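Recap from last week: sequence in, structure out.
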Amino acid sequence: MKSKITLKKIAKEFDVSISTVSKALKGSHEISKEVREKIKAFAAYYNYKPNSLALNLRNQKTKTIGLIIPEIVHHFFTKVISGIEHVANERGYNVMICLSNESYEKEILNMDMLANGIVDGIIVSVAKETEEKETYNHFKELINNGIPLVLFDMVIEEINCNKVITDDIGGGYLACNHLINMGCKRIAILTTPDHISVGIKRKKGYLKALHENNYPIDEDLILKIDEKNSIEDQINNLFELTNPPDGIFGVNEIYAATAIKIAHKKGLEIPDDIAIIGFTNGLISNFTTPPLTTVAQHGSTMGERALELLLDEIEYQDTDYKYKTEVIKTDLIMRNSTKKIPKNTFK
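Predicted structure tokens:
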């Protein structure tokens, strides 16, 4: 049985660009007769059926980029959009934004629509449900059809494309190490289920900081939040432990802000009785009482780099293009939910 053939595989076979293959299959006289006939014969042997929509996408620039994000009311994603728009305006591109609402099916529908010849490439932050299902054929098919793709924030390691990610491990380490420096002895983490990659990485950073400082790993202090149930009830259980934490790291600002709310209900003083730090420097972090110390992701920078990588691939279009994974470093934003640190402690 012959293996499935794609534009990219044909291009690699003849050491030409995907654009050359598409033109040859359409009989373009820009391509020599000898090359046209060889490519057509090869495609016929493998029963290749040209995807006219994908070919149209590669050869007729729309100057429009597709963006699929899980949600739009999240401060991080508004910053990403801002960064993408900044570069798009400079480079003469428009941006079409779609929401997956963390749904696998909606993500596929959005991708099918965008790949229908109306954009030059697509930027995606993968939906939580897609990560949970571990089914990524829609991304593989997109790439096989020669459509440029960049994944950011929530990415799939096995997908061979450009990626832009936060230094989640470094950010988790920074957060936990800060609580240790503040004198916390029992540090809890409010994290995601194990199928969410960013939660896994931030927990790795947390565990690394504990290990390097010779803190014991207490499984009672590692709370994996199931968002299908009450977040507040789950975090409240942490405060009910016989030996509760004196420091909490929330892998997002919702978890951390909820911990602040519960601490207030229990009459605890923040940061004297319990210090709390979050992840993502959003609006919520600024308006909690007290304001939340947090790890900044720099969403605008991530958006800028995601679009720059996508446009580089769109303009390159050759088979030896090398994909990149760019890591955006994090910073600690100090506020009153943790004790103030002496000057020059962090450089």
